[in-house]
Every structure is written in C-alpha cells, then in structure tokens.
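Exercise: predict the fold of this chain.
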Amino acid sequence: MADVHGNDVALQAVLDDAAGCQVDRWWVLGDLVLSGPRPAEVLEVLRSLPGVEMLRGNTDRYVLTGEQPAPHATAADAARSVDLVERYGLMAAGIGWTRGVLSQAGLLGILTGLPGELRLDRPGGLRVLGVHASPRADHGPGISPGRSDDDLGRVLAGCAADVVIGGHTHKATDRVVNGVRALNPGSTGIPLRPGEAGWLLLEFADDPERRADPARGTVAGLRAEQRIAPFDVDAVVRDLHARLHPNTEFLEAVLTGRRPQRRESDDS
C-alpha cells in the first residue's frame, strides 16, 4: 500500500480486507503520516504488520525537515494566486502539527531511518523494486495510467528491476513498458474516489514452470490484484475537526470529493 497519509480509518479498512488473503509481507510505499488526523496511530499499526517494510515519501521528508515545494517561482506569480499561498501556509502548519504529534509520541525517529527504496529478489530471478514516486525521486510525476510509454520508460530505464511498484500519484496502475511491469496501488488514505482505500495484493510464483500463466493472470512470476476497501469518510472528517487539525477544511473537501484533487504533476 501507499499514501496512507495519517488516515487510520482507511488503513484499518485495508487490513480488514486483507484479513482473508494470507498476507505474509507488507510493503508501505511512503507518505505515511502527513495530512490525516492520526499519524502516530498509523505508524504504530504499520510497525505491527507481518514482514513489514516501509520507505520514505516526499511528505514524510517534509515532516522531518519542515520543507515543502515552493508554490511559485516569483513574487508576481504569488500575487496572482493568493489562494495557493494561503494553502502553502496551511501545509506548513500541518507539517508542524504532525511533527509535534509524532514527537510527543516518541515516533518521529522512525521516519528518520526509512530508506528511499525497497528491493526484493525472488527465487527464479524476479527483481522487484518499491519506490515512492519513481526510481530516482520521491516527488514529481510518478507511475500512473495516463503517462506516455516513452515518458514512463525513460523514468524506469536503468532501474535494475523487472517490476517497479510506486505510489505518489494516488492512481491505481498496471502497465508493462519496455519489459518492466509498472504498478501503483493507488492511495489508501486519500483515494481519488472518496471512501475507497486502494491497495495491491501480489502473489508470486516461485516455480519457474508457473512464471507465465495467463489463466492465473501472472506475468513474469507475479499476479497482481488491485483491491478497494470502503471506509467511513465522515468518521475521518469528524476526527480532523476534533483534533483541531490545521488543514481540516481542505482535507474535508478532498476526502469527500467536493472539489478536485491536485494535478498529477503536483506533489501528493
């Protein structure tokens, strides 16, 4: 899964959905804590998962450093987009709020030790790479269904993997580009479709004779199933209000779908 964004209600919905799937290993592909009302609880739950490995997303980096991408190149640009300047300030407040919650819980150090990528070499030679946005960056355009083959192929070139799984765009994806299978589980915590937490169930075929089985949907030893777990959006919104989260108004709009989410090229 990816992009949990501090949403413990959505996270629990995914885990409930996975309960009957015999999951023995979890990868969590970044953007773990920022935005939602329960960053500490999310980290505690994630740490308890079987075989869990987590990596750092761009918003996890923001929580650690206090930085975020500048919304405008010049002061003149800012003057033409006052609403974005205000949102930039609220984002900074959300970063500080989340850092404070994690510091009080003694969990901020967990983010410090997270790697930028995960790798798994399966019997039979299948190489799997986990990233947040792309193999060389935790921000910017990532794996999505609408990105051109040429563009995505350039990003994946030299990744030394047969399968690359990334989050960041919040867009569920399953593509093959230049022989590399590119997957995205969608977002668990801030899904594009309100109340529909996304995650990805992977099944590996270690027997070389089963590495390509169209009847099972396997490609190069891997069967991938995009899954959706419904969750209670109103419960998350109520919690944002109760905890006086500085970004409550914006997050409520995004979670409920009352206004469009950020463009794919933006950092999510």
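Check your answer against the key: Residues 9 and 236 are 7 Å apart (CA to CA).
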